[in-house]
Design brief:
Chain lengths: ~290, ~350
């Protein structure tokens, strides 16, 4: 009885019942992602006074943001640091991925190398960031070594508490998110394809430009999205390595929340979310990930 | 083997990986405008041989000559030899046209755009892909991919095309059609094809001559009919999958095997003493009515209908399976009773005997 009931409709209901599989995820996302985002948009229009926030709708916080050089500069700084780190992680990450994913023929060895790239993540994020201070400082490891070698006479002060130190720190932390997806895509390239291209007379540079790079592009896009999302939302590296000189949108959110300015924090939050959305949309226009992966 | 007409020639080529020898002292000369198929079981070194000729792997010993030139130390892309990969190895992100144009557009010598266009369209037409130029290679069928792979190689106008199990990835129907097409395309171009395959029917059907490779050495190089009728070694007979093989011993002009001792006239020298009789040269007779000549007692196990013929499977006293093929053009098939004993008879002169001596 239950046997026939279960067996007969299974072919028909297969399609509609499979939607239940995403129900837990959908509910979770609705409660903890969609609802909070809508709430942030709503709160950004509330009226903020020094000690209170009231649900009276106003554009005041938005006007303050776009009327202030500090806030606008911080938006530009965020975009500048994001672009620089995107480029540095790509420039350092792509050759590494090329080596790990394509030139290392042994699959076990290439997995081992990828794991080695991840080893820094076994220490906490903050320690990794703070460890740059004794490295880059005026009396830090790099300056001491360079002076001992006689390459410089005076310690380089620009190494720490500048935009450069923020870029160095972020690159080191996020480069692995670029290496992983690219190495994965490169590892999937059939070696026969490269051999075929070589047999047809193309040199390595041509093969790289026409075959290898286009085939790794989905990996570059995924890596780029990873790095972008994390760098755009960053505040800790900037706080620890810039001596408060570099203020990213993330840092502003932290300060505003710290002084209970919820409306302004929400404005910055909305702007940051929009920027991220645009960046991701831009990346997804480069390749059709659904088709490539 | 200094053949004047030879397009390419291998001279004592040996290739080993560690202590495994894939090719042992292989010498071979292939003429221009010829379809040569290279038959061998897996592990016989046939892919290695192809890769050595293509230049993907260097030989440990021996020389490779192509169009009268020693190319042993010349890299693959300067050899002018085309290679068609087993799994096609098409560039997945490029269109059919761009796949075919790749070698012309990215090769060492620059080719003018108009010439690329003309040559690519001509070869696409030759392999029958006109109209599909702008399709992605993932939007076409297996047989079409095969043609793209072939066109991509042919557009470079090679004098020699190496095909590594080119039909292996196609379904049986398509495989049959592509056999005919490959031969037709080759004849139109007048170049030499060297076609590696593990299928004996494919090797016999396609090659003007067939090379049979056995454990890294060439066991036989002859036209298909010769290979089929006169396999040079017991292993060649075995690869052809058309011979019942009986082990035994040779003594005083007699072969002693499971069917007793029979006088023999001709022995092909080989390192193994074996008696081979083709599936379609055996007649099945009821017990006690056997004609004169060699015969063996066996019980009927099963039969298999193949359309133009029927295969019968018998089992001898020492549990060896003997296959008998009956061509339906010779008359309606007999029905045999399961597990009944019959006499399997043949003419002594139809058998091939291998042995020392």
């Amino acid at each position: 009885m239950s046997n026939t009931a279960a067996a007969a409709p299974s072919t028909n209901t297969g399609k509609s019942s499979s939607w239940w599989l995403i129900a837990p995820g959908a509910i979770w996302m609705a409660l903890f992602l969609v609802a909070p985002i809508l709430l942030i948009v709503y709160v950004s229009f509330w009226t903020q006074t020094t000690f209170k926030i009231e649900p009276t709708l106003t554009f005041k916080s938005w006007q303050t943001f776009f009327g202030s050089d500090t806030y606008i500069n911080s938006l530009w700084t965020t975009l500048r640091i994001w672009l620089i780190v995107l480029v540095t992680t790509f420039v350092i990450g792509y050759p590494t991925a090329l080596f790990v994913g394509l030139f290392v023929k042994n699959k076990t060895l290439s997995t081992v190398l990828l794991v080695i790239c991840v080893i820094p993540f076994w220490t906490s994020f903050l320690i990794r960031v703070l460890a740059w201070r004794p490295m880059l400082g005026k009396e830090g490891a790099i300056n001491i070594i360079l002076m001992k070698l006689g390459i410089i006479q005076q310690p380089i002060e620009a190494l720490l508490f500048t935009e450069l130190s923020v870029v160095i720190g972020m690159t080191q932390i996020y480069v692995v998110f670029m290496v992983g997806p690219i190495a994965f895509m490169l590892g999937r390239i059939d070696p026969n394809i490269i051999e075929a291209a070589r047999d047809l007379g193309a040199d390595f540079w041509r093969i790289f430009r026409k075959i290898i790079f286009p085939l790794s592009l989905p990996g570059v896009v995924v890596g780029g999205i990873f790095v972008s999302v994390m760098v755009l939302g960053e505040f800790a590296t900037a706080a620890a390595l810039s001596g408060r000189k570099v203020n990213l949108l993330g840092n502003i959110i932290v300060t505003q929340v710290g002084s209970l300015k919820w409306a302004m924090a929400s404005v910055v939050g909305v702007i940051l979310t929009v920027v991220m959305g645009l960046v991701i949309a831009g990346f997804l226009r480069i390749v059709d990930l659904k088709r490539e992966l | 083997m200094a053949d004047e007409n030879a397009v390419f020639r291998l001279d004592g080529v040996t290739r080993s990986y560690g202590n495994v020898t894939a090719l042992r002292n292989v010498s071979l000369a292939v003429a221009g405008n010829e379809y040569v198929s290279l038959l061998g079981p897996s592990g016989s070194g046939k892919s290695t041989l192809l890769r050595v000729i293509a230049g993907f792997e260097p030989p440990n010993q021996g020389r490779v000559y192509f169009q009268g030139r020693d190319i042993t130390n010349i890299p693959s892309f300067e050899r002018g030899i085309g290679f068609v990969f087993q799994n096609f190895a098409l560039f997945p992100h490029l269109s059919v046209f761009d796949n075919v144009a790749f070698g012309l557009a990215n090769g060492a010598q620059p080719v003018a755009k108009a010439e690329i266009d003309e040559r690519v369209r001509h070869v696409i037409d030759l392999v029958g892909l006109s109209g599909l130029e702008d399709r992605g290679v993932n939007q076409i069928s297996g047989g079409q991919k095969q043609r793209v792979a072939l066109a991509r190689t042919l557009v470079m106008a090679p004098k020699l095309v190496l095909l590594d199990e080119p039909l292996g990835a196609l379904d049986a129907n398509l495989r049959h059609r592509m056999r005919v097409e490959l031969r037709a395309i080759r004849e139109k171009l007048g170049v030499t094809f060297l076609h590696v395959t593990g299928s004996e029917t494919e090797a016999l059907a396609m090659g003007d001559r067939v090379v049979v490779l056995d454990r890294g050495s060439i066991a036989q190089f002859a036209p298909p009919a010769d290979v089929y009728d006169h396999p040079a070694t017991p292993n060649v007979a075995h690869f052809l999958n058309r011979y019942n093989m009986f082990d035994g011993s040779l003594k005083d002009g007699q072969f002693a095997g499971p069917f007793g001792s029979i006088p023999i006239t001709r022995v092909t020298p080989a390192d193994r003493t074996t008696y081979a009789i083709r599936y379609d040269r055996i007649r099945v007779m009821p017990k006690g009515q056997g004609a004169a000549g060699p015969a063996i007692d066996a019980k009927f196990v099963a039969s298999e209908y193949l359309g133009s013929s029927v295969m019968y499977f018998f089992e001898t006293a020492d549990r060896k399976v003997v296959e008998v093929e009956h061509h339906l053009s010779l008359g309606a098939p007999e029905t045999y009773a399961p597990m009944q004993h019959y006499d399997l008879c043949w003419k002594a002169e139809d058998a091939l005997v291998f042995g020392q001596g």
